[in-house]
Amino acid sequence: MRFTIIDEADEMLQGDWEEDMRKIMSGGDNNEDSDHRYMMFSATFPKEARILARDYMAEDYLRIRVGRAGSTHTNISQTIYYVEEHLKRNALYDLLFSMPPARTLVFVSSKREADLVDDFLYNKGLPSTSIHSDRTQREREDAM
Questions:
Q1: Domain regions of the chain by residue span
Q2: What is the pLDDT, as a whole number, of residue 4?
Q3: Which ranges constitute the DSSP H helices of the chain?
Q4: pTM value > 0.85
């Protein structure tokens, strides 16, 4: 059995990837391999991704939802701070020191930004690392 796993499937529908996604999900140029399973994963599954899944997944595909749309787990607290772009890194640094010490994950929108935030925090004396697809599996495991 073969598997094609698409993580962050909703992101693959951004930036003109839909045509490529349709080709991938249809098995490429020919779809003769019935022993091939396709899996799509996403923290959010917008309408476009659900349509793609419905069009190309098996009739009995399984959709798993955790929690309620638009809600968070009771152990998660969300606070929004509006900060001017040029002050964001310093605001992050200040925020980290305003809380009790803890392991913290910071999500950013690109690999480059992950490395820049990592460098900033490291240069400020904080133990920091970034994890993204340009890192080897070993580097990602070491970071965890």
A1: 2-56, 85-143
A2: 80
A3: 9-12, 18-25, 47-56, 88-98, 111-123, 137-143
A4: no
